[in-house]
Amino acid sequence: MSEHIINISNNFWNIRGDFKIGGILNIGTHASIVRCANGKFVLLDAYTLRGKLKNQVDALTNNGADLEAIINLHPFHTIHVKKVHELYPNAKLYGTQRHHEKLSELPWQSQLTESSEFAALFADDFEFSVPAGVDFISSNENLHFSSVLAYHKASKTIHADDTLMYLKFPSIIGVLKKPEVSFHMTLPHTLEKRAGAATDFHNWGTQLIKQWGDAENLCAAHSSSLLGNEHSSPSVADKIASALKKVENTLQAHEKKFG
Fold this sequence. Notes:
Blueprint: E1 4-9, E2 12-17, E3 20-21, E4 25-26, E5 29-35, E6 41-44, H1 51-60, E7 67-71, H2 81-87, E8 92-94, H3 97-102, H4 116-121, E9 126-129, E10 149-152, E11 157-160, E12 164-167, E13 180-183, H5 187-190, H6 197-211, E14 217-220, E15 225-226, H7 236-246, H8 248-258
Parallel strand pairs: 6-7, 7-8, 11-14
Antiparallel strand pairs: 1-2, 2-5, 3-4, 5-6, 9-10, 10-11, 12-13, 14-15
């Protein structure tokens, strides 16, 4: 795995970056640069840009002058935030409540990215969704299930961190299976410990599939990108529906325990 940019459409680019666990295992991470209807750009999530990557982004954004906003969508993805702000200090900086608390010295905009007030600011180009029934900011910092999912309407692209994954899994005989969309494996540990949480999550997932049913691309953080021109069927929505079906046992077990 190495740093590179995937051209999703003529107004959406997915930046594939490196993220190593223990300095050895590279599980990757990502960000996306998006051209909005007004001709300006936003950066979804933060990744430190160097060399060829930075040259490519600068070429798109008039050396950063046309980068209007840096939008941090995952409360636990904070490593690159400060550096990216330093690279593009004139871009408005948005983040979750945890970003504000952990990096309080930065000039955050007041609207939190998990809020409806924030979503309204970018409604011409994006729809945003926060998973229901799960901890958005878990007290256990090793649990990173939830994030703000972004849907860029013009390119029909979902940008997701952790919550949705698109991975290759080895089979029992060591041969790679076809990549599949799945929900992050920490779901059982992040469902809210209350009655109705499992139902709320299921209803959220069902609504997401319906609302973003025309999605053609899925860009996921610690995995890879699912591009419409690389698959004909099933659709992205059908793949998410299959992922939701696969966690039904988890949801039922939670419901049995908490009601």
